[in-house]
Amino acid sequence: MSASTERARRATPSDIRARKGGTPVVCLTAYTTPMARLVDAACDVALVGDSVGMVLHGLPSTLGVTLEMMILHGQAVARGLDRACLVIDMPFGSYEEGPEQAFRHAARLMAETGAQAVKLEGGRHMAATVAFLVARGIPVMGHVGLTPQSVNAFGGYRVQGRGADADRVAADARAVAEAGAFAVVLEKVPAALADRITAEIAVPTIGIGASPGCDGQVLVVDDMLGLFGDFRPKFVRRYAELGDGAAAAIAAYAEDVRARRFPGPEHVFTAGEGA
Ligand code: KIV
Is the CB–ligand 1 distance for residue 50 below 6 Å? Predict the structure, then answer.
């Protein structure tokens, strides 16, 4: 296979799994086709996260995200990808009842979007569901530590696994890895715990607010581009301030319209001109 054919090949969950201990897996969220194209050019995994509810729809948490929302955004992202592995979140309420419910909804997400895997939140209590899906051909990415769909049970978006709580989070990560997950997201856990889990489980850990020692990293793309307002969590490095640039551009447009500087002569049509 030539280098260019190699690059054009779509990354699969098995490829991601094989990266354990190797070059870190690069993952960003995407919710739209244009953003998916940008993510596809540089990342191994494009995650249609249920963070879409907060980031694009203005919801107060991810709890109001529906299967239909995930399908629409999943379809949009799929249209922008050539090489990144497409993983889609199972929204709150679509999988917790049991393995059959999870299979029904995961199958719909995959069939209607072309996603190659689903991600679901939860540790030991979700292990049977992970095993059920994997046995039926649905690759699963796990997600332990701070699981935002449980924000009400946690009482906020707090770091998980501090002190004596570390063993609980480690046991959760082991359970989903042993159940067959091809990778496990570790969200907002102490760095030493993330390193311990990375050493303990056989599949890649994908950190967010975890440790540089994880086998990969994920961020919400709008956060790292500075598009999501004043939200500046400790674990995000802002690689751009696109929100400021957009605000300045919109203000300049508004001034130009009010002063009749836009449209200019180059933007209007004459009676005789073609399309
Ligand atoms: O919904 C999401 O965007 C996520 C990642 C940040 C891990 O679950």
Answer: yes
Q: Which class would CATH give 3-241?
A: alpha beta
Per-residue pLDDT averaged across 25-51, rounded?
A: 98
Q: For residue range 233-252, what is the model confidence (pLDDT) as tens digits?
A: 999 999 999 999 999 999 99
Distance 1 CA to ligand 1 centre (A): 34
The residue nearest atom 2 of ligand 1, judged by CA position, is: 49
Q: Which amino acid would we find at residue 36? A: A
pTM of the model: 0.95
Sign of CA dihedral 52, 56, 61, 64: negative
Mean pLDDT for the stretch of residues 54-76: 97
Start-end of H helices in the chain = 3-8, 13-17, 33-40, 52-55, 67-78, 99-113, 127-135, 151-154, 166-178, 191-200, 221-224, 242-258
Expressed in angstroms and rounded, the spacing between residue 275 Cα and the centre of ligand 1 is: 44
| From 96, 97, 187, 273, active-site residue | 187
Here the tokens at position 67 are 């299967």
**Domain range list for the chain:** 3-241
